[in-house]
Each structure stands twice: as structure tokens, then as C-alpha cells.
Design brief:
It catalyses: tRNA(Asx) + L-aspartate + ATP = L-aspartyl-tRNA(Asx) + AMP + diphosphate. This protein is α+β, with helices and mostly antiparallel strands. Helices cover about 30% and strands about 25% of the residues. It folds into two domains: about 80 residues, OB fold (Dihydrolipoamide Acetyltransferase, E2P), CATH 2.40.50; about 300 residues, 2-Layer Sandwich (BirA Bifunctional Protein, domain 2), CATH 3.30.930. It has an eight-stranded mixed sheet with strand order 6-10-11-16-15-14-13-12. The protein has a five-stranded mixed barrel with strand order 1-2-3-5-4. The structure holds aspartyl-adenosine-5'-monophosphate (AMO). The site of aspartyl-adenosine-5'-monophosphate has 22 residues, from strand 11, strand 15, strand 16 and helix 12.
């Protein structure tokens, strides 16, 4: 008999079916015992009246079940399975589960959940976060491919940093010292110049952040875009805006159940306000008495400014534009009107930065000068700099942190909740 999945049962007539999955819940009512079976698609009620079968059951063991599908209005989803045969196919070796899989409340800390990630992910609510994450990635890929972008895969073991010297993990690379990539920055630019023109990458990025916070990981997934022959940075913000619209439409279609479970109403994207950083700093000071660090706004400022934007523009998103040269990496393109500013931006979503992007310097001499201006040595960036000698077109791009975007969509409080197997200062296992 061919296996059917729980979410397919609704289409199946009353007949004998074969199901496989885990024992989710066991509830006795006098003569009958209801057993709930869970597979990757959902949970279904089994009616078992064989005492021997019941006495051997244990939560979370995996089983194969043959039974009659019966439509019953009183059962969840109006379906139940009257079991004829049940075979245990995956034994358990535990006295107590680390936390509950079948109750609304987990009764464990986030740390315990992460220690037993392979068990917490058995909870349908925890899995839902990763279904949404999977669909974010799917729509990112689909949106960009439809626009003619090429998907690339660049090295994660690299010779020099891209985002400034700190926050890098070093690697012993035979006789040399290498680093884990903080971002595919240099390579995505290089591939634009190599003739791809427009590229994207979905890959891990590494940051040796020296603090454990609710929004930092040491390894995260970066959704990177780079586009050649642009007019200016507005084209990049238009592209990201277009992606967000596409994403939320896609999630509405593909993740209805998951969004409902978290009570999420997705935002409608109209034009996202674009506000120069210095204006945002002024508003923070005047309206909230909040002082910002030079050339930036801090985490508290991001939250306050998002609140202001929500009230004034009814938008969950805001682009902060024109960051000063001193606060951006050496590749950021200076602004035409004020050379101390750059054509770069951040995107803030419900109080958290989820993106940095901007136009890059594409002229060899200007880039070399800027590297020196930043106190760096051009020879340390040899292969990157050399690639600008051969007609590099005007270009730019951006990167979205996948876990941050997922976290904000699902209204989670800690980035670890939207990370499959988080890496932080204290955790490299499981
Ligand atoms: P930036 O360093 O701002 O820019 O990173 C881009 C985005 O990546 C995410 N991110 C992180 N997520 C979790 N934990 C971290 N430690 C972490 N660090 C960054 C954030 C952030 O907005 N090369 C540029 C991008 C570009 O200009 O194309 C860059 O890496 O969501």
C-alpha cells in the first residue's frame, strides 16, 4: 500500500490507508484510546481499541499505521483513522522528554530548546518558522531569476576582510592565515564586472561578534544582490521594495497555516519612506530627546524611529539613506552633492536593521584612493582592486539577513528562534 501524508487525507475517500509518523499524543476515554499521529504535514486522530497495541505505545516513537479512514464531524479536521495494524519502526530510549512536543506551552527555556533542537523542531509551531524561512528563500530566488539575475556561489574561505578589519574569524589555511567570509561583497561585485551583470547569492556569512545579543549571530544566512549598470542607489531600493511586495504575496499564498498559527498579519507594502540619516537623527533628538552616535543610530534609536515612521507613514519599513563615508566600508560610493556622505542605505523593519546596501565605487583610481584614505594598503586588496582596471560598470547591491527578516515577520523576540542551528559565543553544538 502506498503511504499517504496527513494533509492528503482530506482528499481521500473512506478506505484503508497507510500512514507513517510519530506518536504525538495519547488520550484515553474509557474503552477507546485516541492516539494522535504526526508527520511532516500535520496531525491526525487514530482510534485504537486493541489493549496490547496501546500498552506498547510511547510518545514520539515512530510508527507505521494501517487503518480505515472514517469521516467523523467530531474529530479534528473531521477525519479519524480506525487502526487495524500498528508497527513500531523507530524505538525510543528515554525516561522523560526534554520538554513537551504536544502542549501549547513548551515548559523549557530557549537554551534547552536549542540544546535539543532535533526535538524542538518536532513541534509544529517551531517547524512553522522554518517553513516561512524556506519560502522567503524561495521567493528571493524566484523574484530575482524572473528579473534575469544569475545565482552564484562564492568562496567562504577568503584572504582579506570586506567589511572592515574586526569581527573576523581566522582559519589556519595550510601555511597561511585565512578568514571566514563576513559577506560575499568583493566576489559579488567582481562577478558583475565578470560579465554576469546582475547576481544574487544565498549563503552563510561569518561575524566574530564579541557579544551575545537577541539580534546577532556568529554565522548567518545572507541574501545578497549585486546589480550592474545602475543609475544610482534608488534603483537598488526600488528592487528591494519590489522583492518585499513579491515576498509578502508569496507568503500569503504558501504559508497561510503557519502565519495564522502565529497570528501574523502581513504588511502591505506601498512606497517605503526614504529618509536621510541626518534627518532621522534630528527627529529622534527633537521628538524623543534621543541622542544618536555620530553618523549612525543605535538599536534604541532604530526602535524609536520605526515607531515614528509607523505613526507618520503607517509603514513597518523605512530606508535610512546617505550614511557618512566614515561609517561605511571603503567600497561605498561617495554622494555627488556631499563627498562626506555615501550613496548607501539601511532598511529598518519593525525597529531592526535587516539590510545594508548602496552604490559602490567602480572607478579604479577612486577606489585605490579610498582604500588609502581608510588607512588600508591597496596591495592587501590586490585581486579585488585589479578587477576594476577593465571597465567596471557603475553598480551596487544590498544584503538581507535571512534570520532577521524571518524573526521580524514572525514577531519573534530572539534571532536564535529563527535560526535552525544557531552559532553564538557559547554555542557550536548541536
Ligand atoms: P552588513 O554588515 O550591514 O552589510 O550586513 C548585512 C545584513 O546582514 C545581517 N547581519 C547579521 N545578521 C545576524 N547576525 C549578525 N551578526 C549579522 N550581521 C549582519 C543584517 C544586516 O543588515 N556587504 C554588506 C551588504 C551590501 O552592501 O551589499 C554587508 O554585509 O540583516
Amino acid at each position: 500500500m502506498k503511504r499517504v501524508f496527513v494533509d492528503e487525507l482530506i482528499e481521500v475517500e473512506e478506505q484503508l490507508v497507510l500512514l507513517k509518523g510519530w506518536i504525538h499524543k495519547i488520550k484515553s476515554f474509557g474503552k477507546f484510546t485516541f492516539v494522535f499521529l504526526r508527520d511532516k504535514t500535520g496531525v491526525v486522530q487514530l482510534v485504537v481499541d486493541d489493549e496490547d497495541m496501546i500498552s506498547n505505545l510511547k510518545l514520539e516513537m515512530s510508527v507505521e499505521v494501517e487503518g480505515m479512514l472514517v469521516k467523523n464531524e467530531k474529530a479534528p479536521n473531521s477525519i479519524e483513522i480506525h487502526v487495524r495494524k500498528m508497527k513500531m519502526i523507530g524505538k525510543t530510549y528515554y525516561d522523560l522528554l526534554p520538554f513537551s512536543i504536544n502542549q501549547k506551552k513548551v515548559n523549557a527555556s530557549l537554551e534547552t530548546e536549542l540544546d535539543y533542537r532535533y526535538m524542538s523542531l518536532r513541534r509544529p509551531d517551531r517547524r512553522a518558522v522554518f517553513k516561512v524561512q524556506e519560502e522567503i528563500v524561495e521567493s528571493f530566488r524566484r523574484y530575482l531569476k524572473e528579473k534575469g539575475f544569475s545565482e552564484i556561489h562564492t568562496p567562504k574561505i577568503i584572504a582579506s576582510g570586506t567589511e572592515g578589519g574586526s569581527e573576523m574569524f581566522t582559519v589556519n589555511y595550510f601555511e597561511k592565515r585565512a578568514f571566514l567570509a563576513q559577506s560575499p561583497q568583493f566576489y559579488k561585485q567582481m562577478m558583475v564586472g565578470a560579465g554576469f551583470e546582475s547576481v544574487f547569492e544565498i549563503g552563510h556569512a561569518y561575524r566574530a561578534e564579541l557579544h551575545n545579543t537577541w539580534r546577532h549571530l556568529n554565522e548567518y544566512v545572507s541574501l545578497d544582490v549585486e546589480l550592474g549598470f545602475i543609475e544610482d542607489e534608488n534603483e537598488l531600493m526600488d528592487l528591494e521594495e519590489g522583492f518585499l511586495k513579491f515576498l509578502f504575496d508569496h507568503l500569503k499564498e504558501t504559508c497561510q497555516k503557519e502565519l495564522k498559527g502565529y497570528d501574523i498579519e502581513l504588511p502591505k507594502i506601498e512606497k517605503i519612506p526614504r529618509i536621510p540619516l541626518s534627518d532621522a537623527q534630528k527627529i529622534l533628538l527633537e521628538d524623543y530627546n534621543k541622542k544618536s552616535p555620530t553618523g549612525n543610530i543605535d538599536a534604541e534609536g532604530e526602535v524609536l524611529f520605526s515607531k515614528y515612521i509607523k505613526e507618520k507613514y503607517n509603514s513597518d519599513f523605512v530606508f535610512l539613506t546617505k550614511y557618512p563615508v566614515a561609517k561605511r566600508p571603503m567600497y561605498a560610493m561617495p554622494d555627488d552633492e556631499n563627498r562626506e556622505m555615501t550613496k548607501s542605505f539601511d532598511l529598518i523593519y519593525k525597529g531592526l536593521e535587516i539590510t545594508t546596501g548602496g552604490q559602490r565605487i567602480h572607478d579604479y583610481e577612486l577606489l585605490k584612493e579610498n582604500i588609502i584614505r581608510f588607512g588600508l594598503k591597496p596591495e592587501d586588496f590586490g585581486f579585488y582592486l585589479d578587477s576594476f582596471k577593465y571597465g567596471m560598470p557603475p553598480h551596487g547591491g544590498f544584503a538581507i539577513g535571512l534570520e532577521r527578516l524571518t524573526m521580524k515577520i514572525m514577531n519573534l523576540e530572539n534571532i536564535r528562534e529563527s535560526t535552525l542551528l544557531p552559532r553564538d559565543m557559547n554555542r557550536i553544538m548541536p
